[in-house]
Fold this sequence. Notes:
Blueprint: E1 4-9, E2 23-26, H1 28-40, H2 56-62, E3 71-78, E4 81-90, E5 95-103, H3 112-126, E6 130-136, H4 140-148, E7 152-154
Parallel strand pairs: 5-6
Antiparallel strand pairs: 1-6, 1-7, 2-3, 3-4, 4-5
Amino acid sequence: MNSSYYGCITDIRQLHRFHSDNVRWLDPSVDYDLIEEYLSYFNVHSATDTYFGISLKRIQDDYSIDEDRNGRLCGFVADGRILSLAGVEVYSPTEWKLCAVSSHPAHRNKGHSKATCSFVAQYILEANKRAICETNITNLAMQSVLRQIGMTQYFLGRTGNC
């Protein structure tokens, strides 16, 4: 049995936007302290500690405000703090992955993840790529966010599902 849930969206007309002026791209060279503080809530304290594949070193090496690297991060930023985080990574020439989605434990269930995820999905679709996302089959909260922004479930190895 597969332990992952896969979501995708191919058409920007299917995207349900949850706009917030608080969502913006994060620049690791400028926002490093904000990112470091946010990740500390998930016990990421050194360059090599990870939270769902994200480490402070990886943010410096692989993420950028520019599009010349593998990925970008956006955050829901309020009162000088990141409350939710989402990223985009190049998965293939035609598919970009919505990744690194998380919300600060004290700020969950407030729509911040929907705002960051729809922001990233819009960016992916405007680049004429297919937006995909993978989460654990038991992560019902993330599955709900994916459905609410317009992603549909698809299954690996089958064609025509997305």
